[in-house]
């Protein structure tokens, strides 16, 4: 029975020790939770302060960026205005050059038309001169042919005349010989008659 009471006392002592240990664990757990909530609260506050600081910094950065954008926009507008003025000036120069080129084109076309007309006139004159030259060359050839023909005729006439002269000279010589023969015969006959009469 003593052993039973001792065992009971030991069980009760273990139960009490367990309860104390559990209560201590609960207290520690509660303290941890409080510490965690405090840390979370502190962290949340620090994070809030940090976010506020970050927001301020972002605001400052955005404000500076906006100012830079404004300045850049103004510079861009100024640059665009300058470019617009230069473009308008360039367009004015282009219009002047176009007008000048148009005048030059008209002057060139007029000059080209005059040159074409002169070339056509010279071509017509050249054609007329060539036609006249061809006609003169033809007449010259005809005259040369006629001269050659006349020269041939003259040579033929000269040959005929020379041959006729030779024939005439031969005939004259024959006539002279005949006359001389007849004169000789007459002389001989006349001399015989005289001798006969003298006898």
From TrEMBL:
Keywords: Coiled coil. GO terms for molecular function: DNA binding. GO terms for cellular component: cytoplasm; nucleus. Residues 63-178 form a coiled coil. It comes from the Eukaryota. This is Putative spermatogenesis-associated protein 24 isoform X1. It comes from Stichopus japonicus (Sea cucumber).
């Amino acid at each position: 029975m003593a052993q039973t009471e001792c065992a009971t006392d030991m069980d009760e002592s273990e139960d009490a020790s367990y309860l104390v240990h559990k209560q201590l664990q609960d207290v520690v757990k509660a303290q941890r939770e409080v510490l965690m909530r405090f840390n979370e609260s502190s962290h949340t506050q620090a994070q809030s302060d940090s976010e506020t600081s970050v927001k301020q910094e972002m605001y400052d950065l955005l404000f500076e960026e906006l100012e830079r954008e404004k300045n850049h926009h103004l510079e861009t507008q100024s640059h665009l205005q300058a470019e617009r003025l230069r473009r308008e000036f360039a367009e004015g120069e282009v219009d002047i050059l176009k007008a000048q080129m148009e005048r030059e084109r008209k002057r060139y076309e007029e000059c080209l038309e005059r040159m074409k007309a002169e070339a056509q006139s010279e071509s017509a004159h050249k054609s007329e001169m060539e036609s006249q030259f061809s006609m003169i060359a033809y007449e010259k050839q005809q005259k040369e042919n006629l001269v050659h023909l006349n020269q041939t005729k003259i040579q033929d006439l000269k040959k005929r005349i020379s041959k006729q002269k030779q024939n005439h000279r031969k005939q004259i010589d024959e006539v002279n010989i005949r006359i001389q023969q007849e004169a000789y015969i007459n002389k001989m006959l006349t001399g015989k008659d005289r001798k006969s009469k003298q006898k």
